[in-house]
Structure formats: structure tokens, C-alpha cells
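Our example copied in:
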Amino acid sequence: CEYAATTSGHLQKHKQSIHEGIRYPCDQCDYLATLQLSLNRHKQSIHEGIRYPCKQCECIASHQGNLKAV
């Protein structure tokens, strides 16, 4: 394919998830992730109820990366 990675690790992950069809199943529901990191985030936000409150307003995010400083 025409995918170009910036690191060999990214290329390996791409090959595994896109071309080899490797998936990481959730052991608590039918969710299938293409990356282990995605599965970990899914479990934290959906099954463990981990939330990240904003320090500037009432917003509560399910992923810390969703809180951006303005």
C-alpha cells in the first residue's frame, strides 16, 4: 500500500492491524481494537469509569488527551 511511516514501530503496527488483521478483543464486551493502546483506553473509559475533570470548567472527559488548554 502507499502508507509511509516515520518509524519502524509505526510501520509494524500498520502492517499488523491493516494487512494482517490483528485485533485486540475486550474481555468484557464485543469491542475489537486495532491497537493495544486503544483497548486499554476503551477499558478505562467504558468499563472502569475513569474520568478526567477539567481544572478550568465543569467538563469531564473520558480520555485525558481530550482536555486541551485554550
Remarks:
- The first strand starts at residue 24 and ends at 25.
- Residues 8-19 form the longest helix (12 residues).
- Residues 52 and 65 are 9 Å apart (CA to CA).
- The two ends are 38 Å apart (CA to CA).
